[in-house]
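We modelled the chain as a single entity of 188 amino acids. Its sequence is:
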Amino acid sequence: MRARLSWICHGATEANRKGRFPDDEPLEEKAVQQTGLSLARLGTVDRVWVSPALRARQTAVLLGLDGTLESEMRDCDYGVWRGRSLAELHESDPESLLSWMKDPAAAPHGGESLSSVMQRISEWLGHHVQDVGHVVVVTHASVIRAAILHVLQAPASAFWTIDIEPFGLVEMTSDGRRWQLRFPQMAA
């Protein structure tokens, strides 16, 4: 049996709307009305993993998913940049911001580099390539981008070319040897 892996990005937060690096913050009130994702579209779900972040846990509850917390699905640690906006950093420390955006191994914020996130997710996918059934993961855009790069064997420099919306859904399948992206048909 093939494995199906559905990645769901958490709902919108104030940090999303204001272009800030997230902290452990709740979903915005209007996020509840914004979800267009239904459990019917997901079909039968055999297992759910959820990032320990509040916004991911709230998204899982909102979608009616009872999941297990999975620390590997945590967002990138943005260090001292948590709560700060891109615009603010562009004004106060443009060199560090540019370094971080151009060099996946850089972590001028004192947190986690994007290379570290990509390595963490690549290892997780490797450990689960032989899983069976339908697994749902509720997590963050950075984690989903890292998973896509792994599957496509794309360079780390492509990280910023992938746009993951709040409540975005990305699907993958595994034949027990490798993961591949899956683009399901739209419902009639």
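As a brief sanity check on the tokenised model: The first helix runs from residue 14 to 18. The chain has eight helices and six strands.
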